[in-house]
């Protein structure tokens, strides 16, 4: 249960009254009421980045004193408090009983109290696909890399599983002194610690909340060192060095590099092993990391962590990112991997950049062949079959063990395959429930020589290159049905799996990954999320040598580079581009950078037709790709931007109904909520009307960040409505000019009986810049 004082207009309990009711509650509570860890959020500190350690200690003492009034002594409050947030975020995390948490939430000065929730972790060709280099790996003149000086001296950090410092992606060869503004450091006081250098300038870990809620961590593992691989992969994707000869199992040779390859990097380890249903990344640990990163002097934060979206004051990522953006840090977060279902997008706060995942035009192709002569394109990173010959084919259901169900055997779940039936054969398995690589492991344990992995209907056409532990390939749903039919209807079915081969230039690309989470935004549907999509399927990047490429217990291999997929992989691509924009435009706000990325994106693939949805192969929508696929070279010079300040975000909270007293605590500065504020007028680079009533008017303003000129508007009307814009021309005399405009939307048909969404766009152009905004309209009931 979460507690917060939201949308209140009446009187609040005084502290004494709260304590009285708390005492009554405790009197009748069970004697051994279970304590849980909660975050007590109290807003913002005002002492600034140059405050002394004494100021931070004073803030912590105030937290201990505050809690001691509930627990009876400061000693007990010190035992209860896990973290005291003392730099930019004001609050603490503590072990409390539910009644205590509820009473604390009612006190003046407290914005919200919410459980310490666990969350989950959600390249050699990507940058060529995004036109930063040509097909031969040569830098394209005047590209975003060239213009942004490869992100030189931007400080880019991630909140993740840590970093493998020995990776060449983090070598400091050729780097000058660390920027003088940097206040961070590396925790290197153990044998497994992480030493800093001039490239990797920061590495810290945060584990107290995880250890309170899940399990203790062995002392030798309490280090920023990455024993998972996810953090090293995302950080090197964002800002890893140029590393020639990067390869995985001799399949993926090339030069690995990040989006801002000359940026400095820092790692804040907040994610630990997942145990059962407990996620490995806890709000209280993340808030401590956000607080530290702001103070250290980070410029860009990439956060590939997510969970179910929550109210802004009951969400650790939302709170932490607000304080980061308030202090000039651009934050990029993953949309989540719960697609293709609608309304699954996470990290929906309007002050962050939310990223979906799409494909690129490189595949690691491995074909499944059947003796009838047909072959089916699959993807894989596994080795070839012994002898490269045909083997008997059998489905998982046909190899069913005596104590298993046919359905479980079809999925190749552990212990469901009979070795007497599977031995020496290629087993055809259905995707779902357990891991893709785990299915191959189960086939191998049953004596199978290979696996053809077939998509279920939900996964559709999304296929993944995995480093399988057995010769295997992964094919789509339609092809899988043909293979199943062949095996079931043929007396002696035979099959072959070809060795993987790198193929560049595949079409169509990009298309949306089926797993990428979709809108609409379930917290504030008037804000269209996700914002952007970027490559997130089969991405090559540096990896931890403290784990295997699959992370599975039975896999004893280690690699320097690995292929991975997810919105986790898409997010650092965008963060890397943010680093380039920060280098070229150090005066741009986080909102201006987000706008430049969004309004310059594309919605067509390399076939010059609209992007497709990987699950259905139908036309994708802004609920999957946001504004489209990122184009770094266009984002460097967007022409116009939809800018926002901290005051604008506070107006957004006012429009949601948060009261003025609460908002003042949130920002630690006075802010006047106006009565006429509307969510439709938030200066976002996209437009969303979730419950359209027949007519709506929205206001926006754009700032000129290019040459003086005149922009005209073009409109692609969403089916079922008409859109008009006034004025139709905007004239800018100088850089920094801002002009406002009104968008009026009216229904053009009324015979809508079922709920549906319709999509369009408006574009401002001066003939050279194209500033495009997506529109989403919810029609019907």
TrEMBL record:
Pfam families: fn3_6, Inhibitor_I9, PA, Peptidase_S8. Transmembrane segments: none annotated. The keyword Protease applies. Residues 1-33 form the signal peptide. GO terms for molecular function: serine-type endopeptidase activity. Keywords: Glycoprotein, Hydrolase, Protease, Serine protease, Signal. Residues 681-777 form the Subtilisin-like protease fibronectin type-III domain. Residues 403-481 form the PA domain. One of its GO terms (biological process) is proteolysis. The active site is at 160 (charge relay system), 230 (charge relay system), 568 (charge relay system). Residues 37-121 form the Inhibitor I9 domain. Residues 151-607 form the Peptidase S8/S53 domain. Belongs to the peptidase S8 family. This is Subtilisin-like protease SBT5.3.
